[in-house]
Amino acid sequence: MSDTFYLLSQLDFNSILDILLVTLVFYWLFTLIQGTQAVQLLRGVLILSVLAAIVASAFSTLTAFGWLIDKALPALLVAVPVIFQPELRRALDRVGRTGKIFASPSKVTGIEATIEAVSRAAASMARLKQGALIIFERNTGLEDHAERGIRLDAVVTPELLKSIFFPGTALHDGSVIIRNDQVIAAAVLLPLSKSVDDAKQVLGARHQAALSITEMTDAVAVVVSEETGLISVAHNGRLIRGLDQKRLEQILNAFFKAQLESLPRWRYYGQNLRKRLRLRR
To answer: Three-state SS for 77?
Structure first.
């Protein structure tokens, strides 16, 4: 305790300013990778680094292992800029623009109302054989893909989704990415699935793109076939086909059950009541 008081007594204005600046830099770096696949990668690197440090300190007599850790750290410093190249490019781009650098992270709200809106829109588009591809972002961020499309940041409603995918409109090609209760981007072109088999060869581009994004991430994709009007859900590289509105809503709620249960009940009921009233107008 005395050491703590001694350290605090040594702090002056410059020291406090120094600590704040370092904190802001690290906070900014974390906000840059938030919403991207780099979050999981950084978490893995940190876990491995901590475990390696613990093992090296616990077994200090292991000369060869200690040498390996000492040599691996400089290599890791060289690898980090290569691994996080898209995030660093985004950082420099934001510095050169007048946009928001310190964007506050979005909160998980309105999931159930969003699922209902997507289910209603998908059922309506299926009746009209209006093709659509709707991607739900989950734990793995899809910001890298969203930046390739047209930014919207609009509240999810059936009318918005049907307007986006109406044939002939400027945004109907590609997919829509949804984060919580927001359509963050439209007209997002996704790569097609590389794991080709007999079943996937007969699928259209939307279905293959849905399989591809769910193979690479934990996203959930809703596909409406333009040829057959069938509704499908893709998850973990697998396709569930021939759904109606009720069954689609049940499956999506099952996928997002953990997020639904994590919401504070008072906020959950209040926000979803407002969204339900707006959707039923």
So the answer is: helix
Which residue ranges in the chain fall short of pLDDT 50? 97-108, 198-199, 266, 268
User: Is 191 in a helix, a strand, or coil?
Assistant: coil
Identify the bridge partners of residue 220 per DSSP, sorted by sequence position: 136, 235
Distance CA 128, CA 122 (A): 10
Task: Determine the 3-state secondary structure of 105 from DSSP.
Answer: coil
**111-279 homologous superfamily:** DNA integrity scanning protein, DisA, N-terminal domain (3.40.1700.10)
Give Cα 134 to chain centroid, integer Å: 13
Pairing of strands 238-243, 231-235: antiparallel
User: For 30-84, how does the pLDDT look when each residue is reduced to its tens digit (9 = 90+)?
Assistant: 666 665 556 666 667 677 777 777 776 766 666 776 777 777 767 766 776 666 6
